Amino acid sequence: MLTAVTVLTGLSLALAAALIAASRWLPERGDDAVERIERLLPRIQCAQCGYPGCRPYAEAILAGEAEINRCPPGGESTIRALAELLGREPTPLDTSLGSASMDRVARIDETLCIGCNLCARACPVDAIVGLPQRMHTVIARLCTGCELCVPPCPVDCIEMVPRHG
Amino acid sequence: MVDVTFERYLTGGIRLAANKTASTEEPILRGFIPPLLVIGLHQHGGTSAVPIVAVGQKVAKGEPIALPGAPPSTGVHASSSGRVRAIEERLIPTGTKLRASLCIVIETDGEDRRFEGGSDEPWPESREVRIERVRLAGIAGLGGAAFPTATKLEAVAGTCKVLIVNGAECEPYISCDDMLMREAPAEIVAGVIRMADLVAAPRVIIAIERDKPRALEAMRKAVTAAGDPRLAICEIPTVYPAGGERQLIELLTGEEVPSGAYPSSIGYVCQNVGTAYAIERLAARGEPLTSRIVTVTGGGVARPRNVEVPIGTPIHYLIEQCGGYRRNVVRLIHGGSMMGYALPADDLPTTKATSCIIAAAEGEVRESFEEWACIRCGECASVCPARLQPQELLTAAAARDFDDLEALGLDDCIECGCCDVVCPSHIVLTERFRGAKRAFAEHARRLALSAEAEERHKRRERRLKQIEEDRRAAQEALKAKLRADEEARRRAVAAAVERARQRKRRDAEP
Question: Domain A29-100 has what CATH class?
Fold first, then answer.
């Protein structure tokens, strides 16, 4: 009896000490956590959440600074996935943020384009091609529908259209 | 000839009351030309054919009007002579759904003039050239999916263990294969032998369900007459869905086609009897696929029967050939009663996938029951021929849980509808699974887009960072150079001042 108590107590104390030591001295793998959150986001870098991209938003979520309902293109399914991963309550999407959707793509009215190149510089995924002073166009297959190219256009020749196929 | 009567049964499956007698009383109706043909260029799951005619151009029967796209694809031909009226996008029925496809609309001239510019040698020696001929001739699987036959033959050529010829025809209303086997058994068998030669199959099994005694008899005679030792007729039990490709292979050979793989991966190839007939017509007479047998049946049509239909015939014209509608018609179905789907209108054209048109009367369509909750009785699992757990899939589909759906094998569901039939709670499971498959495809597409976008974004970040670094480095270099120049100048000035001072000192000395 006494032996058993001693052995078990000793064992639990030793393991507790090991765990405390591990949590104190082993580096915390925060990057992994950010990555796991980022994976659940659409990663189209639309910045409609108010952060400059998906990774900064993921970092803010991890730090507890941001709500999980700030991703318009991800919608309900992203909120649900985030809620499940983080053990938070799913909340309805914050609709005030924007309307970016992966179901749409940008289209440049090529007759109006003046070749200013501002849209190509705004595109986070290199989906717009064109040389300065020449017509620009969107490669629809590569476009993620983030809408970031729309505001910089000085002649308002970019519109969002439904994605085909 | 080997003649086997099979007593092995399918995994799962159900026995359904057949409705084939109405459409098998009269012989196949042949030789009519509709005033208008709407020929779809994208009739199957592969890629669309590419049109090679212009609006206003005169075309003859059998003239190629579109060439195959990237494989898997097939050529498309004018089903009768006339003039091209339009080339436009229209809705066409394919094996599993309606699809918007580019169509060539031909106004026929009633002459049915045959195309003379074809090849003199319809069935050349080399295997590759023969397969190419099959592709150009537009031959597609006539069992209902219209998958390009050349692609299937190509995949198994040389490695084929058994060529399985599908005459099972398990759908309760369809009888087009039955009638073709009764009326043209010699041509079918000749086509089968040509296919066996093409893929170098050591054995051929022609599988026919037991409920077609007349077709069985005709085919037995034809096989005996052909005298080819490779050929065997196999009479199989009448169980739905024994005519499904994977089901038939498993039933006959005991081997299961792996999930996600084609039968060719285990050395089998399955071809419909109608396809064999089409191959024979191409090889013996040089005719491309411009028509197919369609069963027009159901209580809502005056004279149910089988019809040889030029591809692209509008469905209402086809119904007229069968005496028109009866008053009690309530729904028009493309394909069989189990795996087909309702059509929104009868001005749609027929395609190579149109095996059957059912004009269903009142009482023939499934009443819409109130759906009750799943009681987990497991009936659906016991009839599922793909050995799935439909009740589990249903829960996962409702929750849109894509990981679960994948793990449960949603992709293996052949949408046969057996689970719907036996469900005591009247749950329409198959419809949910179709929806889930669509959602899954959409989900996969989004994931791919996300992954690709992330990759490109990272590359862009790296590039921008590199540009920024290069710019800064250039700036630093310039600054360093300016500093060095400044330093050199200061040193030069200091040296000059020093020299002047020394000169002064020298001059001051006496």
Answer: mainly alpha
ipTM: 0.78
| B64-67 vs B50-51, strand pairing mode | antiparallel
Q: Do B453 and A126 touch (CB under 8 A)?
A: no
Domains and CATH numbers, chain B: 2-321 (3.40.50.11540), 370-510 (1.10.1060)
Partner residues linked to B58 by β-bridges? B83
Helix H or strand E encompassing B255 = none
Measured between CB atoms, does B400 come within 8 Å of chain A?
A: yes
Residue B166, token pair as written in the block: 């599908």
Nearest to B291 by CA among B112, B54, B96: B112
CB contact under 8 A, A126 and B446: no
- Put the strands of the sheet holding B356-361 in their side by side order: B305-310, B291-297, B356-361, B329-334, B341-342
The CATH number of domain A102-165, selected from 3.30.70.380, 3.30.1490.100, 3.30.70.20, 3.40.50.1010: 3.30.70.20
Mean pLDDT, rounded, for B340-354: 94
Q: In chain A, which segments carry CATH 1.10.15.40? A: 29-100
B36 DSSP assignment: E
Strand partners, B334: B341, B357
B167: enclosing H helix or E strand: strand B162-167
Nearest Cα neighbor of A147 from A125, A165, A114 is A125
- Radius of gyration over every alpha carbon of chain B, rounded to an integer in angstroms: 33
- Collapsed DSSP state (helix, strand, coil) of residue B357: strand
Q: What is the pLDDT of residues B289-303, one digit of tens each?
A: 999 999 999 999 999
Q: Which of A83, A81, A71, A12 is nearest to A47 (CA)?
A: A71
Q: Encoding tokens for residue A106?
A: 């940008």
Asked if B495 reaches chain A (Cβ–Cβ under 8 Å), the answer is no
Residues across chain B: 510
B interface test, pick of A36, A85, A126 with most B CB neighbours within 10 Å: A126
- Give per-residue pLDDT as tens, B67-119: 999 989 999 999 999 999 999 999 999 998 899 999 999 999 998 999 987 76
